[in-house]
Amino acid sequence: MRKKPFKRGWSFIIIFITVGLSYGIYHIYLYNAPKQNHYSRVSSTHLEQESLGGIQLLQSLDSIAREPKPNNDIERYQYYDLGHETTIATARGDDKIILISVYSDHTMSTARDIHIGASADEVIKAYGTSYYKRGEQGAEIIGYVDKINHRSIELWLQDQKVDMIRYCVDSVVM
Questions:
Q1: Contact present, 119 and 130 (Cβ < 8 Å)
Q2: Are the beta carbons of 156 and 139 closer than 8 angstroms?
Q3: Which residues pair with 152 in a beta bridge?
Q4: What is the Cα 78 distance to its own chain's centre?
Q5: What is the DSSP letter of 3?
């Protein structure tokens, strides 16, 4: 009597399961990965004229109408509070703004009129479909990258509404 060739069938199943698990683990990692890991997966979106409440990246601290109050700082960055849960940051020893974060100020809108409370659909309509998605701190994040001008904007969503906006140069690592 001849035995049935189970070996080839089991090999296929093991390979199929291994590839499936690898694919799943990679996508879980990518969803939770830092924003820079997503840059190669999307096309560039022009963000050079972008601003938040009229404040632009690489603008001097001295040119801001609202007096920035020094907040906490870490080794690389100095943070400033503009009130209404709006924060800006500079590289230590420089006065050029490299990060703008808006948490609750509904008057601070982007150049494309996106503000806290805007829907995810409004964001996609304003910025286009070339975005990445990731998650952090329980929020779903839609991000756009300007590969030419080295900056990105992330819109953090809660219940499909913008809950935070973060606009920064590529070199900012959070």
A1: no
A2: yes
A3: 145, 168
A4: 20
A5: P
Q: Give the three-state DSSP class for 115.
A: coil
CA 172 – CA 120 distance, rounded (Å): 24
Quote the CA–CA distance of 58 and 36 in Å, as a whole number.
20
Whole-number Å distance between alpha carbons of 80 and 78: 7
* pTM of the predicted model over 0.90: no
Number of helices (H) and strands (E), helices first, in the chain?
Answer: 2, 8
How far is Cα 141 from Cα 83, in angstroms, rounded to an integer? 24
Contact between residue 162 and residue 155 where contact means Cβ atoms under 8 Å apart: yes
pLDDT digit string, tens, across residues 48-66: 899 998 899 999 988 887 7
| Among 173, 133, 140, CA closest to 156 | 140
- pLDDT for 118 equals 95
